[in-house]
User: Fold this.
Amino acid sequence: MLKHIRPENWGSSRQEPILLPRWAGGLSSGQRLLGLPGFDCSLLQVDMGSAAVQTHALGCEGAVHNWHSAVVAKNGAIYALPFSGTTVLKIQLGQIQVQQLGRELSGGWSHALLSRAGEVYGVPFSAQKVLKVSSTDEVSQFGSFEPGVAQWKQGVLALNGFIYCIPERALTVLRIDPFTDTTSQLLVAPSRPSAALPGTPTSQTSTTTVQIMCLGFRCPASTVLRPTAAMLVCREQPCFDTCCLSSCENFLCPQGYSPKPGATDASCSSGYCSSLDLLTCCNVDLWYPNVMVPLLIFACTGLTCVMAQTHRCHKEHLSRRRKFSILYFTVLFAWDVCDQTASWWFWQYTSDVGASKVVQGLAMASAMLGTMVILSAFFAGLFMTTGQMLDHHGPELSYSVAAGTADVLMLVCAFIFEMEGLDEGSWIKVLNLIATLIDFTLKVIQAAGALFGILREEEEPRLLAPE
Assistant:
């Protein structure tokens, strides 16, 4: 309970009237009141028990309202935040001991608040950052705001532990998170023109310079908040362009693709959905002819080849060495079938996402050349004798060089496609690139082995010839 200060305890001397406030605001701590300096550059202390009045001069260097607000911390000290001053004052009442914290601060904090953890936070009135004084008297700042005056003037500590700053001229409510020392801004819906005060200008433009943290921003329908919203700041209205991503809800999947089940939860990385987000919003329709036909053709070709070579091995009673050689060629052929299937899928994908004519042309040239090589090898494997297949390395060299050429074309195509920036991690591109790299490596090894075999065949007659 506060004790009443009896008038007789005050001096009887007549006081001159003061036209301007000598002390602006104050607070109580225990049995004492503290007045913060206004036009009088001093601290005012009133002992409510004895009615003793005491002042403590400060070095204000001619400025006024150097410290506008203060708060009593858990350690019993009073912390006054600078409004026009450049330091934080730590004040111990009684004999009025003053300690200055921080150096060369910008000032501009209008209200001091105490968080649940006992740390002091300053509301930015004209400052561009939030001021914090830790329990160890360490002064720091965080956040980033546009320069301006009368942005936020007062704040309140809510039950959830956040500090909410009420706007004076700002377009947002500032939310300070003392747990992580971060800030976010909640947009205040603009008033209707009819509700504006007389003489207040209203803007009819669609954009307004603001500063709004995207964290907590409410995105309109068919859009979702960006994953990096905590680090984004909107500086111009409308803010959904900066803070939100268009979802796949209204994306029209082309032929050969079907909408993903969770399309409303998926978002387009570029901010708006385009052909770049094809595989983000849509699934490949495996039953679509452009996808299924190449798969069926190559699958039938590979299966027929395997069956034909298996029949050859049983019919001709080949040795283990020759059976192994046929198995080796059959496995390579089956791999090439898979590689060419991925090539045709990739060509179709480049067309769907609107790649350049060069990319589409290279993809088609590689797929067609690879297909012709496979068909040539398929018919050769059906009609060539075992001796022609295994005893001569010329066909193997021709096959590996032609298939390797198709791989080189596809690698050049994939590089140009990547440089165009039309792909966002498509699994079709990744699948095709991995298959092409593996196939090119195998073809180089196969060509080297075939060339070595040809050279060895040329050397054998010389070794067997009589001297």
User: Anything to note?
Assistant: The first helix runs from residue 240 to 243.
